[in-house]
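ok so i was messing around last nite and threw this chain in just to see what happens. nothing serious, just curious
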Amino acid sequence: MKPLPRPSRRASLLPAAALMLAMVSIQYGATYAKGMFPVAGPSGTTALRLGAAAIMLAVAMQPWRARVPRRAWPSLIGYGATLGVMNLLFYQALRTIPLGIAVSLEFTGPLFVAVVTSRRKIDFAWVGLAICGLLLLSPPLHSGHALDPTGVAFALGAGACWAIYIVFGQAAGNALGRYTTAIGTLVGACVVMPIGIYQAGTALLQPHILLGAVVIGFFSSAFPYSLEMIALTRMKAKVYGIFTSLEPALGALMGLILLHETLTVLQWAGIACVGAAALGSSATNEKPILPE
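result:
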């Protein structure tokens, strides 16, 4: 028998390039969204993002063709609801703390899930490293570089929602496959939309705000989700987790370049600790940090 041909270098680089582009797209969407806060507010911006993303994903994936088993509805609704609340809390955090710090604090959610689902002693080292990172990110409140405690609480709340989202997402994904994201995003939009309309009102109907919603929905959800599917179907779970551990640092860089958000040396060290903890957890764990 002839040996199977090895995949071309171009084919092996495609999933890595797709995942990196997806992460850049998500962080760019976050920076663009922050620019809409003065008019639409975090809640209104979240509602517009999920609403636009739900429409795009519905057109692309046609979720009405899915047959949802009765047993799958609780996990599907839980997945969509936590998706909506997670995005709402994250945007509330972005209102008062830098993007890179918000991403790092939120990332503790999936890191916690990855560690809890493992039973090895080395995972306690990753937890300790992540805790060190959190302490470096938020120095004492009386210092000159203290973070807004409310923003920190919102980011950690988003991380907790991300952990719950993973649990519900895996259950819903096993039942519905590729339709899960489209239906879950629609549920999340239904949860957040009333809050956004109540707080932003008619400001959401301004033409430039609606155009911004399309931009955010595309770069934060529709486009990166499609790219992540390319990566997930061609990349090992461990490699996927290692790549995503770069996201806190990427968020900090995007915040610095596009939003001019400067960080202290200690805060950069904290971001590095969180990213290293995520990388180490992924490298020593066969399970992905993020749900497939």
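not much to say yet. Residues 15-283 form one domain.
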